[in-house]
Amino acid sequence: LEARLEQANLLKKVVDAIKDLVQDCNFDCNDSGIALQAMDNSHVALVSMMLKSESFSPFRCDRNIALGINLTSLQKVLRCANSEDILTLKAEDAPDVVNLVFESADSDRLSEYDIKLMDIDQEHLGIPETEYAANISMPSAEFQKICRDLMALSESVAIECTKEGVKFSCNGDIGSGSVTLRSHTNVDKPENNVEIDLTEPVALTFSLKYLVNFCKASGLSGQVKLCLSNEVPLLVEYGLASNSYLRFYLAPKIGD
Amino acid sequence: APFQKDLYNFFIKS
Predict the structure, then answer these.
(1) What is the side-by-side order of every strand in the sheet holding A202-207?
(2) Contacts of A128 in chain B (CB under 8 A)
(3) CB A46 within 8 A of CB A249
(4) pLDDT value, residue A224
(5) What is the pLDDT of residues A156-177, one digit of tens each?
(6) Would the CB atoms of A251 and B5 count as touching at under 8 Å?
(7) Residues A79-99: pLDDT tens digits?
(8) What are phi and psi of A112, to 5 degrees?
(9) Nearest-CB residue to B14 (from A126, A254, A256)
(10) Distance, in angstroms, between B9 CA and closest chain A CA?
(11) Under an 8 A CB cutoff, do A124 and B13 touch?
């Protein structure tokens, strides 16, 4: 494997966003890119990252390899990079280590680190292709604020999507609260758009603790996409350049 | 309170 990423910062942000949910992960490398899928310990949330080969330049992966990496270790090493550094990831066949080289774009500084790999026997889940009943795009900072605000009142949030808009509501010991968003187009600042694409009304309840955790990815993308269908896990997607993405799935709370 | 399902209820081990 040899993969050069123009911004080491991208991988750093991804790792910062997921390391409180998942600890040891396989980075599955093949000629289409670098993928990661991991569930949290309680099997309620799942992280799915895809960094497509087009996100790298150049990208070369001659044989499929799984790089088992402890994310705390990876975070430590990525913190050694300067924010504008270029990152090259390298691994040999049947590797013991993954090699990270940070290059400064405007100086001759070159730093190099090896991280020891681990054997991770990871469960892989098949996620069915789903036509979601509601697809909502909204500013990622807005979603983060809603989740944090409602978590002050309750452990869980009800997300209801109708043709009127999307309503986030909660009920707790001190009282209740709700935030409703309608479709909204801002020509000057498309990052502020709220788009709601609905085929049928949806109402689901989710744990706010996990949603707040997912929102650590807000720095990766100005917009977040929420995809919902009744009685299936919520998909929270942060789109990255070149069709790469960071996705989170969260199982709903059902019944009483 | 509603019951927290886990992902095995929805996704298949592959």
Answers:
(1) A176-181, A165-171, A156-162, A202-207, A253-254, B3-4
(2) 11-12
(3) yes
(4) 98
(5) 999 999 999 999 999 999 999 9
(6) yes
(7) 999 989 999 999 999 899 999
(8) -140, 135
(9) A126
(10) 9
(11) yes
**Residue type for A167, please?**
K
3-state secondary structure of A15: helix
Q: Residue A154 CA to chain centroid, in angstroms?
A: 24
DSSP A109-138: -EEEEEEE--------EE------SEEEEE
Q: What pairing do the DSSP bridges indicate for beta strands A59-60 and A2-5? A: antiparallel
> If you ran DSSP here, which 8-state letter would residue A81 be given?
S
A126: tokens are 């098949």
Contacts of A42 in chain B (CB under 8 A): 6
Nearest CA in chain A to B10: A232
State the Cα–Cα distance between residues A4 and A116, nearest whole angstrom.
20
Q: Which residues of A touch B5 (CB under 8 A)?
A: 44, 251-254
Q: Which residues of A touch B13 (CB under 8 A)?
A: 123-126
CA A73-A77-A81 angle, 5° bins: 155
Report strand pairing: A33-39 vs A45-52: antiparallel
Cα A41 from Cα A51, distance rounded (Å): 24
Of A44, A123, A205, the CB nearest to B6: A44
Binary contact (B5, A254; C-beta < 8 A): yes
Q: What percent of chain A has pLDDT over 90?
A: 95
A251 vs B4: CB contact, 8 Å cut-off? yes
